[in-house]
Amino acid sequence: MIRRRRKSESEPTIALINVVFLMLIFFLVAGTIAPSLDKDLQLVRTADIEGTAPADALVLHPDGRMTNRGRDIGSAAAFVGSLPEEARADIRIIPDRDVPASTLVALGRELREAGAERVLIVTERGMP
């Protein structure tokens, strides 16, 4: 009995190269078909905009101290009481990064009990 030698099956590298090449051509064509912006359009520059906290926001520091416009606030009720009636609808809290979550939740609860309709937490937006 003579054994036949098996031919080593070659990998279809040519087919793989063709598929990759076709994908490259597809993406090149799809990129050129997309409409471009008008040449005379100038986008808004935000590099020079000063990012400051809203004036009516309550700043919560890591040690539990609360300030508004640079002045210390004794309690949440005192802060809500100092606001005009229309400003009590939305109250913003700007917490420090190191404030414990339990302190932030307790402050939100106190503000709601003092008459705030909605309590909003102002955070830093990450880059997309």
Automatic annotation (TrEMBL):
The superkingdom listed in its UniProt entry is Bacteria
What are the record's GO terms for cellular component? Answer: plasma membrane
Transmembrane segments in this chain: where?
Answer: 12-34
Query: In which broad location class does this protein mainly occur, judging by the first location in its UniProt entry?
Result: membrane
> Family, per the entry?
Belongs to the ExbD/TolR family.
Asked if the keyword Membrane belongs to this entry, the reply reads yes
The name of this protein is Biopolymer transporter ExbD
UniProt subcellular location: Cell membrane
**Which species?**
Paracoccus amoyensis
Question: What does the entry give for GO biological process?
Answer: protein transport
Output the Gene Ontology terms for molecular function. Answer: transmembrane transporter activity
Ranked from the top, the taxonomy reads: Bacteria, Pseudomonadati, Pseudomonadota, Alphaproteobacteria, Rhodobacterales
Q: Does the keyword Plastid apply?
A: no
Q: Which Pfam families match?
A: ExbD (PF02472)
InterPro entries in alphabetical order: ExbD (IPR003400)
Q: How does it sit in the membrane?
A: Single-pass membrane protein; Single-pass type II membrane protein
What keywords would UniProt list here?
Answer: Cell membrane, Membrane, Protein transport, Transmembrane, Transmembrane helix, Transport
